[in-house]
Amino acid sequence: MEIERKFLIKSLPEKLDSYEHHTIVQGYVDNEPVVRIRQYDNKYILTIKSLGLMERIEVEKELTESEFKDLSTMVQGNVISKVRYKIPYGEYTIELDIFKDDFEGLIMAEVEFPDKEKAESFIAPDFMSVDVTDNPKFQNSQMSSMNKKDIHEFITCLC
């Protein structure tokens, strides 16, 4: 079970480049249930997620580069590129994503929790702003199906 909350970012934390960070490129084979393939630096991962917002079932399997390339031919919609920074915050790790390419300008963070109670009692640091956990538009799988006009309007509304 994955339990996470998502937030928009009002300012980048100081010394961002000092944190561990990774390049991510991901595409979606399907959105119901979510079937995602992801290149995470030099690793390749297949993820299947149930429907839901804060809580959902998530299963991951490592892929070979060849399997990833084969599945890439089945990707529907936009490929999402981002740099993910892992920022320690108390007992948690904030995963701050700076989106690239079509979604340039979008910066979001997510935090995973061991249970719903901890998720609901989480107090975000000052650099995080609006909680968008319950807004499906901010799920990467939904963003993957936006057309260019919708992406532009989506990014423009955030500024």
Summarize the structure.
This protein has helices at residues 65-72, 116-121, 140-143, 148-158; strands at 2-9, 20-31, 34-40, 43-49, 55-56, 58-63, 76-89, 92-99, 107-112, 128-131. It is of the alpha+beta class.
Short key terms for the protein model shown above:
globular; 10 strands; 10-stranded antiparallel β-sheet; 47% strand; alpha+beta; 4 helices; 159 residues
What does this structure look like?
The chain is an alpha+beta fold and 159 residues long. Helix content is 18%, strand content 47%. It starts with a strand and ends with a helix. The model has no long low-confidence stretch (mean pLDDT 96).
Low-confidence stretches: none
Instruction: Estimate the strand proportion.
Output: over 45%
- Amino- and carboxy-terminal Cα gap: 33 Å
- What is the overall pLDDT average? 96
CA gyration radius, whole angstroms = 15 Å
Q: How would you sum up the global shape?
A: globular
What is the topological layout?
Blueprint: E1 2-9, E2 20-31, E3 34-40, E4 43-49, E5 55-56, E6 58-63, H1 65-72, E7 76-89, E8 92-99, E9 107-112, H2 116-121, E10 128-131, H3 140-143, H4 148-158
Antiparallel strand pairs: 1-5, 1-9, 1-10, 2-3, 2-7, 3-4, 4-6, 7-8, 8-9
